């Protein structure tokens, strides 16, 4: 088949993350998915084969495809978020292979924050365990629209339908308490390749799709917020050339909604309005742009707009304020400092802030709130109140993951210390 660059660039991108307890087979699943879909190079496969031999593995250990760190290979666990890219004729994919250990919660949050879909692994022998509930709760908290429950190691329970059905019913009962939009279940054996890319001959009682078929066909177009038009300005484009002497464009990524040529828009924070004159993506002129397209927009009027400003529709503006309520996942060894001062980055807008209050710390396993212990340390999640030096234009995270998130930065080290999900104005 001939490679068509334009078709490849226009292919839909699915981001998905993996989660599960240690030894549930996350890395093996991804290795099998890449291998059976012919998405790893021959030299990579050969390196994995030789490494498997040195380790004394009886078969080729496909988990080594993703376990990139030396410490991971030695301990047989995933520590860091491993990103893998592959494509099929149907779609492009970005995989975030995240750790299962509770002490790496921050890594799971990082990998899942932009995911359309989460693969949650369950060992068919063990059923639902505490880690299953914790990862499901975090996936719900992060607003991941699609959850696929991968009931793995079916070969170790003799491919029995009863084992699969029990776990499916148990998980449905647990998930009824959560706000999960879309749940799918697949029985599989990552080690042997059952129902990963190829249908399993050992489970003829299962009539659903294979994992790859599901990843290729699951509907994700509605995952983006196409109601609320949001365009954070990343940079002002002024070519200063003879051909484009008067050109003044605003570059950025559409964070929500749809913008069309001729639309009336408002620039925040100034409040001045204008009409969209043109929309360009590279050399191509467009009539409309929608999330998550990166484009340049020009306006009919000369308005003072700079990086950090936002274009929105006149009749649909985001919340605006300096008092922010948010859930924070803490990512630094040094605990969050009450009344501490931090820099923050919200979309393309930078500001400084102070932590006014810590409302509670969340029990990650149950989502219960601890108001007695308010120390937010590494990998903890808690609710905080922030006061910013300049107003932010935002939506709640549940409404728009792009305009509803921000990061906190240590002013002295310039290190990202917290990832926040905005709940609304206090």
Brief digest:
The chain has helices at residues 5-10, 26-36, 42-55, 70-75, 105-112, 130-141, 161-175, 211-217; strands at residues 13-19, 82-87, 92-97, 117-123, 146-152, 182-187, 230-232, 235-237, 249-253, 258-260, 264-268, 273-281, 284-286, 288-290, 294-299, 310-313, 319-330, 341-346, 349-362, 369-370, 381-394, 405-409, 416-425. It has 426 residues and is of the alpha+beta class. A hairpin with a 4-residue loop joins β11 (264-268) and β12.
Mind explaining what this structure looks like?
With 426 residues, the chain is α+β, with helices and mostly antiparallel strands. The protein folds into 3 domains: 5-223, P-loop containing nucleotide triphosphate hydrolases (Rossmann fold), CATH 3.40.50.300; 230-313, Beta Barrel (Elongation Factor Tu (Ef-tu), domain 3); 319-425, Elongation Factor Tu (Ef-tu), domain 3, CATH 2.40.30.10. Helices cover 19% and strands 34% of the residues. It has helices spanning 5-10, 26-36, 42-55, 70-75, 105-112, 130-141, 161-175, 211-217; strands spanning 13-19, 82-87, 92-97, 117-123, 146-152, 182-187, 230-232, 235-237, 249-253, 258-260, 264-268, 273-281, 284-286, 288-290, 294-299, 310-313, 319-330, 341-346, 349-362, 369-370, 381-394, 405-409, 416-425. The strands form 4 sheets. Strands 7, 8, 9, 11, 12, 13, 15 and 16 form an 8-stranded antiparallel beta sheet that branches. A 6-stranded mixed beta sheet has the order 2-3-1-4-5-6, sandwiched between helices. Strand 19 (349-362) and strand 20 form a beta hairpin. The protein is globular, with a radius of gyration of 24 Å. The model is unreliable at 68-80 (pLDDT under 50).
């Amino acid at each position: 088949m001939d490679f068509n660059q334009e078709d490849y660039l226009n292919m839909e991108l699915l981001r998905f993350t993996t989660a599960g307890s240690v030894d549930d087979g996350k890395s093996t699943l991804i290795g099998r998915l890449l291998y059976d879909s012919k998405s790893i190079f021959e030299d990579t496969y050969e390196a994995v084969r030789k490494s498997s031999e040195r380790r004394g593995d009886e078969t080729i250990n496909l988990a080594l495809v993703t376990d990139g760190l030396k410490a991971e290979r030695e301990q047989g666990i995933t520590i860091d978020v491993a990103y893998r890219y592959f494509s099929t004729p149907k779609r492009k994919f970005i995989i975030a292979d995240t750790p299962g250990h509770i002490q790496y919660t921050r890594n799971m949050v990082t990998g899942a924050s932009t995911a359309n879909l989460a693969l949650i692994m369950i060992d068919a022998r063990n059923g639902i365990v505490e880690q299953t509930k914790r990862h499901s709760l975090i996936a719900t908290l992060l607003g991941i629209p699609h959850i696929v429950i991968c009931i793995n190691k079916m070969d170790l329970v003799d491919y029995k339908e009863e084992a699969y059905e029990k776990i499916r019913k148990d998980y449905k009962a647990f998930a009824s308490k959560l706000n999960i939009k879309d749940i799918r279940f697949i029985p599989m054996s990552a080690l042997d390749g059952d129902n990963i890319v190829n249908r399993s001959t050992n489970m003829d009682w299962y009539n659903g799709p294979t994992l790859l078929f599901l990843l290729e066909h699951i509907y994700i177009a509605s995952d983006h917020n196409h109601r609320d038009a949001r365009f954070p300005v990343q940079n002002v484009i002024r070519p200063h050339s003879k051909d484009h002497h008067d050109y003044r464009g605003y570059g950025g990524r559409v964070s929500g909604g749809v913008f069309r040529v001729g639309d009336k828009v408002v620039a925040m924070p100034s409040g001045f309005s204008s009409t969209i004159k043109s929309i360009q993506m590279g050399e191509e002129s467009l009539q409309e742009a929608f999330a998550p397209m990166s484009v340049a927009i020009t306006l009919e009027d000369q308005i003072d707009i700079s990086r950090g400003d936002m274009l929105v529709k006149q009749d649909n503006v985001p919340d605006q304020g300096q008092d922010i309520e948010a859930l924070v996942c803490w990512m630094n060894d040094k605990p969050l400092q009450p009344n501490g001062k931090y820099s923050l980055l919200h979309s393309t807008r930078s500001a400084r802030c102070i932590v006014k209050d810590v409302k509670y710390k969340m029990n990650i396993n149950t989502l219960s709130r601890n108001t007695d212990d308010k120390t937010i340390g590494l990998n903890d999640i808690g609710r905080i109140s922030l006061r910013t030096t300049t107003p932010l234009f935002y939506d709640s995270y549940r409404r728009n993951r792009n305009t509803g998130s921000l990061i906190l930065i240590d002013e002295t080290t310039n290190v990202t210390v917290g990832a926040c999900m905005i709940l609304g104005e206090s």
